Amino acid sequence: MAEHDIYILAIESSCDDTGAAVIKNEEILCNLVAGQQIHELYGGVVPELASRAHQQHIVPLVDAALKKAGVDKKQLHAIAFTQGPGLIGSLLVGASFAKSMAHALGIPLIGVNHMQAHVLAHFIAQPKPEFPFLCLTVSGGHTLITRMDDYFNETTLGKTIDDAAGEAFDKTAKILGLPYPGGPLIDAYAAKGNPKAFTFPVPNIPGYDFSFSGLKTSVLYFIRDAIKTDPDFVQKNLSDICASVQYAIIKHLMKKLEKAAKESGIKQVALAGGVSANSALRHTLADTGKKNGWQVFIPAFEYCTDNAAMIAITAYHQYRQHQFADLQAAPYAARQK
Ligand code: KG4
Ligand code: ZN
Q1: What is the pLDDT of residue 150?
Q2: 127-299, CATH topology level
Q3: Which stretches within the chain are classed as H helix?
């Protein structure tokens, strides 16, 4: 008997974006996201406001996703949700919604790990990496190098011991008086600046681990001293400062990735997480790949930042391996630091 098609609805609500996607086997039929502008007013994500906004968005978003995909909820084989890590209040909204829907429809529930999903986003579209490959995941809460030997067989080679790469971007932006999230703004200003204008220390810690807190402190002191002699220093040099800090962040990431690739002998290298939207990081990875003979994989922009399509593709592979959750499955908050 021919295998029948599998339809899964996936929900992502780990932080401040509500996502809903519908997948048919490995094909994404629809991938919607509702962002939350409210946090810009506060210079960072306010957890209570995030969960309230998820509550407002989730029902209309799921309706719209099913409609756009042309799939009736009776056709669904499973409901997937981000189980963690993330903000607990935000996760609870997605988890409760997914559980109610799975229960009402009498279909299985699939709890997905958000970080695993960032990596498996590489299996949404061609070209897809082959196992084993290395993945550098860089987001607002995480920075790690993973060795992937199969969909659910991964080894963390190194991770940040303090701030994540996204935090390094966002905290630098905050020091410079830019609104949250600062990463995309630093990227834009840096494009017009000179990365060698100022020298910021590239962290030097052993192994494959990362550290960004020293860099953040050095930016803070540098700006504090510079504005003592020229109060307009930041406005006058914004692009050069952004380019120089970005240069140090990327150099640190590339050094560790090159070390991991060299020592593991793996030549397929992938990039994942929200910071992989950074244009200089994309270019630098492509160049570093060329230099080292790597095959480099960078997902389309919409699959880099938080999205439900990556939850859907991960859920599809979990479905095939019968990795289901029960209605008691609790979300987990812990963010890796
Ligand atoms: O993966 P993601 O969407 O959410 C988390 O799970 O954290 O990543 C968000 C992070 C934020 O820190 C944001 O500033 C950063 O990704 N980011 C960028 C860019 N776009 C998003 N950082 C640098 N350059 C960008 N273009
Ligand atoms: Zn993420």
Answers
A1: 97
A2: Nucleotidyltransferase; domain 5 (3.30.420)
A3: 47-69, 88-105, 114-120, 165-175, 183-190, 213-229, 233-264, 279-292, 301-304, 309-320
